[in-house]
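DUF3871 family protein
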Amino acid sequence: MNLNFNPFGENEEFSQSNGVVHHEIDLSQSISLPARKPFIEANTMEVKLQHLSNDCIIPVFAKDNERTISHQEFIDSSLDACLSVIPGINIELPEIRVSHQIKGRTPDAIHKPASQLLDNEKTIYYERMAFIARIPEITEKIGGNTVSLAIGGVRSYNLENLYQKKSMEKFKFFIGFQNLVCCNLCVSTDGYQEQMKASSLEQLSGYIMSVIQNYKVDKHILQMKELSEYSLTEQQFAQLVGRCRLYQHLSKDAKKSIPELHFTDGQINLVAKDFYQDESFSRDDRGDINLWNVYNLFTQANKSSYIDTFLDRSLNALEFTTGIQNALKNEENGYEWFLS
């Protein structure tokens, strides 16, 4: 990828190793590659877009019976917005993960025992949904790993007050990269909108397009590449892990002078375990580990997050690791506490 220009600027073309790509595509014909590791695990399961469209009801706001924006409409709007901003690209079929299934039944089955319900008498929807869709033509090598451009988002109905009248609905959206070695997501500040509030699909699409247009892909890539230039010794890594565990138990006043760390004790334990055991990102023969690998240990541990905290922790992983990088440069930014 040519990093000397903004590939998302108006009237610009993508510059890639195999030449400029000009493929107007139909989403129904999107590329679908062989199955990979899931981008999030926790208590989620994978579903197809057709399942959301054909088998799931759409929740409404109780007081006025106005419908919500459905999960599938959010996904479709994201893909359409991406194609509008970056025309001529191919987008893989989205990988969709859901959790917290909400079950119901049709009125004619109100008196039936649950064990006797027929499929057409059951209703379901999923309280939480996350998706990603890769853009396979846009890739880069970082730390020996291939990363692919991707878009994605999160929708959690539990953040809406469905017992009231229709109000602004909340969505999370990102454009960033996915490490194809482990399927970890790489999310940056300018490629992530933590809370989009929209009352219509048109409004939602406008916000998504704005995030894509403002994303500085070259800056994000260089930020990640620089991580591989800095390393921690085993002793420094042990200090880092210990401080991360202590952080959870600090008082509110003590935390005010220290940058936020959103990872749990269980996830920090996974980071420590994978320092020795991960096939791709463990320490080297000398016992050292570069910060690109540290970053991937955190994004790997993040796969155990619930859907509604997943993208926030993805961003926090990059902020935390680049903060440690700056602390190694002897910059006083608060992150030196984790190495002291």
